Each structure stands twice: as structure tokens, then as C-alpha cells.
Amino acid sequence: MNSECSKSIDFLLENAGSVIQYRLCKEILKDLSEGEEEKLLEQIYELPLFKLLATYVKPNGYIGRGMHSWDNWRGTVLHETPLQDGECAARPLSYHRIPKTHPFVHGFLSAMREEETLKTEFFR
Fold this sequence. Notes:
With 124 residues, the protein is mainly alpha-helical. It has 2 domains: 1-37, no CATH class; 47-124, no CATH class.
């Protein structure tokens, strides 16, 4: 690895937020111990965006309401924030690379496979 790249990586490892550090170590450097991963994930789970997302998780596992329509649906405003929309709620889980074993991800995926949940979310 060249010197400039190493300097950039070192800078990010020392100064970047937990999401960037996590993704850099896990996906690019492929050098992340189990302990480091747990520490970074705990930091990510404490981020305000993640905590806000938690408020939209329903008992059935679905996050938000509907999909692809956070601002309005057929002229009706559905949500105050994008995170109240299923698609927009899924993005931080993906962008932050939240493991599929996390209850939010596991529950959301399970809910997306449940016919009754989908009927409730999409055809009320």
C-alpha cells in the first residue's frame, strides 16, 4: 500500500466516526477483531439516528409504515420524517452495515416475508 493511502487510512482510523471506522476495518482492510467489532457496533447503536430509528420499530418487526412514499401517498402526507417510511428506515441499517442478526434487521426482514404484515402495511 502506498504512503499516501496509508496516511489516509491512519487518519480515518483516528478521526472518523464509528460507522466509517467500522466499514473501513471490516470491508476494506478486512482487519477487525470480534472485540473491536462489538465496540464499534455499540457506538453505532448509540448514534442519534439509530436511536430515532428504534422508535419506529413495530412489535411485528416492520419499521415505519409503507414503502417508497415517505412524503406523501396519493396526496396524503403520511410521515413527519423519512425514517417513518419502510424503505428510508432500511437505508441506515444497510449504510451502517448493521448485522443481519441484530433484532431490527432480523425483525424487519421477517416482517417483509409475512403476508399479513405486508397486507397491514400496504393495504390499510
